[in-house]
Amino acid sequence: MQKTISILSLGALALAGTSLFAQGKGDAAKGKAVFEQCSVCHNADSAEVKMGPGLKGLYKRKLTDGKAATDATVGAKIDAGGGGMPAYKDLLSAAEKANVIAYLKTL
């Protein structure tokens, strides 16, 4: 039983690691196209608030919840939404999210 749990745990970690690794392989040009729907509420060319916070320089500052901007925290915010932002977990594919994250890194 203990061996089975260990094997299942390792398998889950392997899948999670694969997912996180795939997130880092986004295409910024494709992410810019996906970001068009985000630009209704978010500025890409400044840090000033539109309806939501401006995202220029996002990876050089903290998120609105005080957490450091990392691929994991930005991805979690995209997935969960909050503060008026809808959750995009089921609206964007993993590849689209990775692409948006790659684009946000260029701002």
What would you note in describing this structure?
The protein has 107 residues and is an all-alpha fold. It has a single domain (2-104), classed as Orthogonal Bundle (Cytochrome Bc1 Complex, Chain D, domain 2), CATH 1.10.760. 48% of the residues lie in helices and 0% in strands. It is built from four helices and no strands. The chain is globular, with a radius of gyration of 16 Å. The N and C termini lie far apart (49 Å).
Tally of distinct domains: 1
- CATH class (first level) name: Mainly Alpha
Rg result:
16 Å
- Identify the CATH homologous superfamily: Cytochrome c-like domain
Mean pLDDT, to the nearest integer, reads 84
Strand percentage lies at under 5%
What is the structural class? mainly alpha
CATH topology: Cytochrome Bc1 Complex, Chain D, domain 2
Distance between the termini: 49 Å
- Portion in helices: 40-55%
Order of helices and strands: HHHH
